[in-house]
C-alpha cells in the first residue's frame, strides 16, 4: 500500500495517572501481540512499543494503552462518521459488518450511502476520519483506529470544497445537496450509533474570549428541535472546533448554547500538540469550554485513498506569467488574496467588456465570454493548488464558486452567467485533473487539523462506552471530559477547555460531574470509581464559571449491580440509590445520600448525611465483610426502611456511626458472615454521639427460633441473639411436642447442649419439625415390646409344661430334648440375622434312666416372631422383631397328685432396623413351677419367675445434616408369677376343661442414658407392670399314638399403664418430657395348638401359639420336637 508523505510527530509515552492496577480480564492482560500476561506493566509497555500504536502521537497522548490491555477495542459500538464519504474498499474497513452507509435525499450525481462524491475521487477526508476513529487493526497495516473493534455507519455530507456544481445546485438552484446538519438526526434515528463524529464546520472569526452573552449572540441558531433525536436516542455528538487559528470554536461546536439540553450530548474538540500546546491552526474552545476537550490532531496518520498530483505539469501549463501574483505569494493569506483578486479581475473584465459592448451596440459573444471565465476559474484554482508542497486538487474551487453565487454578484453578472460558468468549469476541471492525478490505491496519509482531533476523541468515547456499557451518554461525557490533563491555565479554561482526555483516569470513573447523572450497573457486576469526584464548577476558571455557575454533580444509582466509591468525593448534589448497591468506601463530604425502595447504601467510608425511605436499605461494610459506615450528620432510617448488618463472632458486626440517628420504625436484619450465630451472642449495631431517637419496628429472625433481641441505650443500639420457644413452632405431634418441651426446658444448659441447639436453632419451621420427627426414640418403644414378648412367651412355655405334668403321664428317669435347642442357639449365636439353618438331625431326644425314677429333665427351644405398635404419630407402621428362646430344667413327682419343676430360660429377640433405629433384648430367667391334681378333675398350678432383662438400643441417622450414632443398654429386674385352677373332664383318650388364672409380671427399667454422638437422651426409671386375669379352655386327646392338643384363653389386663416414658437430654437439666408409647390393649386372646404322634420309642410333635386381637404387642412362637425313649 502507498503512504502519502507526511512529517511524523513522535508520540511520547503517556504517564500513568496513578498506581491503580485494574483487575485483569479473564485470561490476563492483553499484550499488543495478542498474548496474555499477568504483568500489567509489561502489557502496557508492549502497546507503547507497537509500531502501529506509535506511528503518531495520538494514542500515547490519550493513554489508550490502558484500555487495550483490558481487551477494550470499542467492540459492540457503532460510530457515525458524518463526513465527505468513505472509500469503503479500503482494507481498514474490510471486516464483515465493519462499515455501512446511510442513504440521504440528494441527487444521484452526488455522494451518497456514506461514499465520496464521484466527481471528487481524490477526497480522503472522510476516509481518514473514519480510519482514525475505528479503522481495523491489520497485521500488515500502518496504523489502526482508536476503537478498532467498533463498526462505522457513514453518512456523506457533500462538502462544497472542490466542486463547482455544488454552488450551482445548492445555492443558485436551491437543490439540497449538502446534508451535514440533517445527517446528525438521521444517524441518531437509526438507533444504531452511540457516537456521531463531525469533522467539519464553518470557520469562525470571533475571538475565543467572548463572554457567554456575546457568544450566544454571535452564534445564535434557531434549531426548532432539529437535534431532539440526539437526546431521544442518547447519542454523543463530537464536533471539531475548527481551524481558525486561535479564534472561537465554530458555530456547530457551539450549538448547545442555543439548546442547553444538548450540553451532555455534545463535545467540541480542539487540536493540541504532543507538548501540550495548541496547534497554530486550531480554533479554541471559547464558550464551549464546559463540553470542550483538546485532542491530538497534528500529522495524524490514517487511512486514505492515496494519489499523486503532477504539480510540475500544472505549473507548466498554468504559468507564473499567467498568474504572477499567485506565484509571488509567500504565505497562505497572500495566496488566498492573490487568487481572489485574480478571479475578481476576470469577472470585472467581463462586466466591463459586456457593458461597453452594450453601450456601443457592438456584438458580444456571451457564450465565449462564459467559457473564458470558466477556463480562468479552473486555471486560478489549479495554479493555487499547485503552490502547495503536496499539490491540492481542490485548489481554491470553493471560494471562487462562492463569489459567483453571492447575491449581489449574481445581480451584476446575471444568474445565467454564474450557472453557465459553474457548469463549464466543472467539466473543464474534471478533464484537467484526469491528466494530472494518478491514483496509487488505498494507503495512509498524515493530516493536520481539528478534523483529525475529533475522531481521536470519538474513538476514545467508544472505548469508554464498551467499558461502561450501561452508562448513558451524559455520564460517559462527564467521565471523558473530567479525565483530562490540564493544559494552559489551571482548570477548565476558554482555550483548551477541560484539557487532554486520559484513558487511565477515565477507566476509574469521573473526576467531576456537571449534573446529576444516572449510573446503571447491571446485576451481577461491580463498577469501581476510584477518582475523587467534585462539582464540575469547582474546576472552572473564573471566565467559564461566569457562564455556568450551576454545574453541580449528583448521582442516581440504578441497576441491580454494585457501584463502589473509594475516593474522597466532594460533589454537592444529591446521591440517590434507587436500585442495586452503592458502596461508599471513601467519603461523600457534601452530598446527601438517600436510599429508596430497591436501593442499598453500604461501605466503610463516611457520608455527610444519610436517609433511607420505605424499601431503602442501609448495610454498613462491604459485601461479605464487616465494616463501619460513618455519617457526619444525621442518619434517618424511616418507616419501611431496612438496616442490614453483617455479623461475625459475638461482639463483631457491621456498625452505623452518626452524630444523630433517627429511627422511624423500620426493619433490622442481621446477616451472618462465615459464622453461625449462637444463642446469647451480642452486638453493638448503631452508635450516635448526640443520641438516638425512635426505634425499629421489627427485626428479621435468623430462623424459626433465633431472633435479634434489641436493646436501646444511651447513644447505642445493641442486639442479642434470643430464642423463641420451640413449642411455638412445632406441630402438635407427640414426638415434636415432647422434644419441644425438652428443648425449651434445657435452654439454660445451652453450653452443655450446643451440639444440638446450634444445629437446630438456625433452621426453618419445616426443617425443625422434620428433624425432630426423624430422631423419635422409637427404638425405646420397641425395646419395651420385646421385653413384654419375652416374659409372656416364657410364661406361656411353662404354662404348657404345667398342663402336661399329669401324674400318670410322668416319665421319670428321662431327659427330653424338645425342638433342637442347642443347634438353634448355636446357629443363632454364630450368625445373627442370617436365615436359620435347617438340620436333618432329630428335633427331640429322651435319655432314660439318667435320673432318679421320680425326676425328669428337659431341654427345649423355639422361634419367636412378633411386632410392636410404633410410637404414636410416627410413620412406617409397626416395628417387627424376632428371635429364639432356650429353656431347660428338671421336674419331680412329689406325690401321686403333685409335681414340681424348676427351669432356666434364655430368650434373645432382635428388632429389625427401621429408620436407622433398632432394639434388642435378652431375658435370662429362672422359674419355679408346680401342679397339684390328677389327670382328671380339679387341679391347681402355679409358676414364679425372676430374672434380668438385658436390653439395648441404637439410633443412627442424620440430624440437620450431621450424622449421629447413639446407643443405650439397660439391665432390668424381670418378675413373673401365675396361679391357676383347672378342671378336666373326659377319659384317658380325651380330656377337656376350663382353666382360670391370675398372672402378674413386671420389668423395672433403670435410668439409662444414651452414649455416642448426637442429641442423646436419658430415659427415666420406669416400671412395666401387668396384672392379668386369664380364663380359657384346654383340650387334648390320645388315640393310637396320635395326640392333638389345644388351648384358648381370654386375657384381661387389670393394670393400666401410663402409655409414655420419660426422657431428658444427657448433660442437660433435670427436666424430662413424656414420649408416648402405643395405646395399651386391655383385652385380647391367646391360642395354642399342636399335635404329637408316638410310635415305639419316638414321639414327634408340632405346636404353635399366638396372640389374637392384640395390637400393642403381637407375637407368635413355633415349636417342633422329636422325643426318643431308651
Automatic annotation (TrEMBL):
The UniProt record lists the keyword Signal: yes
Active site: 83 (charge relay system), 125 (charge relay system), 451 (charge relay system)
GO function terms (MF aspect): serine-type endopeptidase activity
GO biological process, one term: proteolysis
Keyword terms, alphabetized: Hydrolase, Protease, Serine protease, Signal
Pfam families to which the protein is assigned, alphabetical: Autotransporter, PATR, Peptidase_S8
Ranges where the Autotransporter domain occurs: 850-1126
Alphabetized PANTHER family for the sequence: CEREVISIN-RELATED, PEPTIDASE S8
Stated family: Belongs to the peptidase S8 family.
Protein name: S8 family serine peptidase
Amino acid at each position: 500500500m502507498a503512504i502519502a508523505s507526511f512529517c511524523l510527530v513522535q508520540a511520547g509515552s503517556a504517564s500513568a495517572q496513578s498506581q491503580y492496577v485494574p483487575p485483569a480480564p479473564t485470561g490476563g492482560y492483553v499484550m499488543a501481540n495478542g498474548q496474555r500476561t499477568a504483568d500489567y506493566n509489561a502489557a502496557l509497555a508492549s502497546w507503547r512499543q507497537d509500531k502501529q500504536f506509535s506511528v503518531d502521537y495520538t494514542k500515547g497522548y490519550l493513554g489508550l494503552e490502558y484500555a487495550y490491555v483490558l481487551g477494550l477495542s470499542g467492540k459492540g459500538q457503532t460510530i457515525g462518521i458524518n463526513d465527505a464519504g468513505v472509500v469503503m474498499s479500503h482494507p481498514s474497513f474490510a471486516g464483515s459488518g465493519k462499515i455501512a452507509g446511510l442513504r440521504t435525499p440528494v441527487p444521484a450525481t452526488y455522494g451518497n450511502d456514506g461514499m465520496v462524491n464521484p466527481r471528487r475521487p481524490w477526497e480522503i477526508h472522510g476516509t481518514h476520519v473514519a480510519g482514525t476513529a475505528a479503522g481495523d487493526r491489520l497485521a500488515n497495516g500502518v496504523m489502526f483506529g482508536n476503537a478498532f473493534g467498533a463498526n462505522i455507519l457513514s453518512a456523506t455530507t457533500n462538502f462544497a470544497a472542490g466542486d463547482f456544481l455544488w454552488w450551482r445546485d445548492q445555492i443558485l438552484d436551491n437543490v439540497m445537496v449538502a446534508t451535514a446538519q440533517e445527517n446528525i438526526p438521521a444517524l441518531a434515528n437509526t438507533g444504531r450509533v452511540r457516537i456521531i463524529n463531525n469533522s467539519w464546520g464553518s470557520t469562525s472569526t470571533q475571538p475565543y474570549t467572548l463572554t457567554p452573552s456575546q457568544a450566544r449572540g454571535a452564534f445564535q441558531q434557531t434549531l426548532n428541535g432539529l437535534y431532539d433525536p440526539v437526546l431521544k436516542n442518547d447519542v454523543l455528538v463530537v464536533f471539531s472546533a475548527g481551524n481558525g487559528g486561535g479564534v472561537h470554536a465554530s458555530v456547530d461546536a457551539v450549538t448547545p448554547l442555543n439548546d442547553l439540553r444538548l450540553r451532555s450530548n455534545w463535545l467540541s474538540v480542539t487540536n493540541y500538540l504532543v507538548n501540550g500546546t495548541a496547534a497554530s491552526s486550531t480554533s479554541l474552545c471559547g464558550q464551549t469550554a464546559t463540553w470542550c476537550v483538546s485532542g491530538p490532531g497534528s500529522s495524524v496518520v490514517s487511512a486514505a485513498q492515496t494519489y499523486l498530483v503532477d504539480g510540475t505539469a500544472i505549473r507548466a501549463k498554468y504559468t507564473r506569467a499567467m498568474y504572477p501574483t499567485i506565484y509571488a505569494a509567500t504565505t497562505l493569506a497572500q495566496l488566498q488574496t492573490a487568487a481572489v483578486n485574480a478571479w475578481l479581475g476576470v469577472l470585472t473584465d467581463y462586466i466591463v467588456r459586456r457593458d461597453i459592448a452594450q453601450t456601443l451596440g457592438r456584438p458580444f459573444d456571451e457564450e465565449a465570454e462564459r467559457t473564458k471565465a470558466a477556463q480562468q476559474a479552473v486555471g486560478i484554482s489549479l495554479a493555487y493548488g499547485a503552490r502547495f508542497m503536496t499539490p491540492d486538487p481542490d485548489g481554491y474551487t470553493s471560494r471562487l464558486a462562492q463569489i459567483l453565487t453571492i447575491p449581489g454578484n449574481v445581480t451584476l453578472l446575471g444568474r445565467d452567467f454564474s450557472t453557465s460558468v459553474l457548469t463549464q468549469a466543472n467539466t473543464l476541471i474534471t478533464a484537467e485533473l484526469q491528466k494530472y492525478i494518478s491514483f496509487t490505491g488505498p494507503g495512509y496519509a498524515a493530516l493536520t487539523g481539528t478534523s483529525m482531533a475529533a475522531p481521536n476523541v470519538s474513538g476514545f468515547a467508544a472505548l469508554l462506552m464498551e467499558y461502561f456499557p450501561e452508562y448513558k451518554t451524559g455520564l460517559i461525557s462527564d467521565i471523558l471530559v473530567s479525565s483530562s490533563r490540564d493544559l494552559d491555565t489551571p482548570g477548565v479554561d476558554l482555550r483548551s477547555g477541560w484539557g487532554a482526555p486520559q484513558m487511565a483516569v477515565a477507566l476509574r470513573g469521573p473526576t467531576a460531574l456537571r449534573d446529576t447523572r444516572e449510573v446503571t450497573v447491571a446485576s451481577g457486576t461491580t463498577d469501581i470509581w476510584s477518582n475523587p469526584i467534585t462539582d464540575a464548577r469547582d474546576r472552572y476558571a473564573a471566565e467559564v464559571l461566569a457562564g455556568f455557575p450551576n454545574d453541580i454533580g449528583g448521582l442516581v444509582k440504578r441497576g441491580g449491580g454494585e457501584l463502589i466509591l473509594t475516593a474522597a468525593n466532594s460533589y454537592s448534589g444529591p446521591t440517590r440509590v434507587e436500585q442495586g448497591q452503592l458502596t461508599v468506601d471513601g467519603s461523600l463530604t457534601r452530598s446527601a445520600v438517600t436510599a429508596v425502595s430497591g436501593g442499598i447504601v453500604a461501605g466503610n467510608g463516611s457520608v455527610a448525611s444519610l436517609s433511607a425511605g420505605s424499601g431503602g436499605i442501609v448495610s454498613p461494610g462491604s459485601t461479605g465483610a464487616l465494616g463501619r459506615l460513618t455519617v457526619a450528620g444525621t442518619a434517618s432510617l424511616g418507616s419501611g426502611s431496612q438496616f442490614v448488618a453483617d455479623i461475625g463472632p459475638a461482639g463483631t458486626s457491621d456498625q452505623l456511626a452518626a452524630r444523630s440517628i433517627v429511627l422511624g420504625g423500620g426493619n433490622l436484619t442481621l446477616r451472618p458472615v462465615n459464622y453461625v450465630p449462637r444463642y446469647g451472642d451480642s452486638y453493638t449495631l448503631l452508635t450516635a454521639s448526640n443520641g438516638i431517637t425512635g426505634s425499629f419496628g421489627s427485626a428479621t429472625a435468623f430462623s424459626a427460633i433465633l431472633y435479634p433481641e434489641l436493646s436501646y441505650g444511651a447513644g447505642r443500639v445493641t442486639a442479642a441473639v434470643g430464642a423463641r420457644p420451640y413449642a411455638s413452632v412445632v406441630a402438635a405431634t407427640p414426638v415434636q411436642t415432647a422434644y419441644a418441651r425438652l428443648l425449651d426446658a434445657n435452654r439454660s444448659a445451652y453450653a452443655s447442649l450446643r451440639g444440638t441447639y446450634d444445629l437446630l436453632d438456625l433452621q426453618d419451621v419445616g426443617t425443625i419439625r422434620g428433624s425432630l420427627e426423624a430422631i423419635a426414640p422409637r427404638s425405646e418403644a420397641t425395646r419395651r415390646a420385646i421385653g413384654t414378648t419375652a416374659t409372656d412367651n416364657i410364661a406361656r412355655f411353662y404354662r404348657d409344661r404345667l398342663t402336661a405334668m399329669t401324674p400318670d403321664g410322668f416319665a421319670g428317669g428321662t431327659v427330653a430334648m424338645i425342638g433342637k435347642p442347642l443347634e438353634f442357639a448355636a446357629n443363632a449365636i454364630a450368625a445373627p440375622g442370617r436365615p436359620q439353618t435347617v438340620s436333618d438331625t432329630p428335633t427331640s431326644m429322651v435319655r432314660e434312666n439318667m435320673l432318679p425314677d421320680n425326676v425328669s429333665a428337659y431341654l427345649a427351644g423355639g422361634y419367636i416372631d412378633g411386632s410392636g405398635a410404633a410410637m404414636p404419630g410416627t410413620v412406617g407402621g409397626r416395628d417387627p422383631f424376632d428371635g429364639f428362646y432356650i429353656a431347660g430344667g428338671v421336674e419331680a413327682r412329689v406325690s401321686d397328685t403333685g409335681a414340681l419343676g424348676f427351669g432356666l430360660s434364655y430368650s434373645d429377640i432382635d428388632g429389625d432396623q427401621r429408620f436407622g433405629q433398632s432394639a434388642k433384648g435378652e431375658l435370662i430367667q429362672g422359674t419355679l413351677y408346680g401342679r397339684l391334681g390328677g389327670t382328671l378333675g380339679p387341679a391347681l398350678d402355679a409358676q414364679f419367675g425372676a430374672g434380668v432383662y438385658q436390653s439395648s438400643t441404637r439410633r443412627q441417622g442424620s440430624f440437620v445434616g450431621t450424622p449421629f450414632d447413639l446407643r443405650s443398654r439397660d439391665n432390668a429386674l424381670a418378675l413373673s408369677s401365675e396361679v391357676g385352677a383347672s378342671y378336666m373332664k373326659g377319659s384317658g383318650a380325651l380330656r377337656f376343661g376350663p382353666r382360670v388364672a391370675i398372672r402378674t409380671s413386671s420389668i423395672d427399667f433403670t435410668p439409662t442414658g444414651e452414649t455416642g454422638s448426637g442429641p442423646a437422651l436419658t430415659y427415666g426409671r420406669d416400671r412395666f407392670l401387668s396384672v392379668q386375669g386369664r380364663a380359657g379352655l384346654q383340650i387334648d386327646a390320645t388315640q393310637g399314638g396320635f395326640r392333638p392338643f389345644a388351648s384358648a384363653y381370654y386375657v384381661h389386663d387389670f393394670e393400666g399403664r401410663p402409655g409414655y416414658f420419660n426422657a431428658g437430654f444427657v448433660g442437660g437439666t433435670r427436666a424430662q418430657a413424656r414420649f408416648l408409647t402405643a395405646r395399651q390393649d386391655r383385652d385380647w386372646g391367646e391360642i395354642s395348638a399342636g399335635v404329637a404322634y408316638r410310635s415305639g420309642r419316638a414321639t414327634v410333635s408340632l405346636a404353635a401359639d399366638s396372640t389374637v386381637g392384640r395390637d400393642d404387642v403381637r407375637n407368635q412362637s413355633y415349636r417342633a420336637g422329636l422325643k426318643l425313649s431308651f
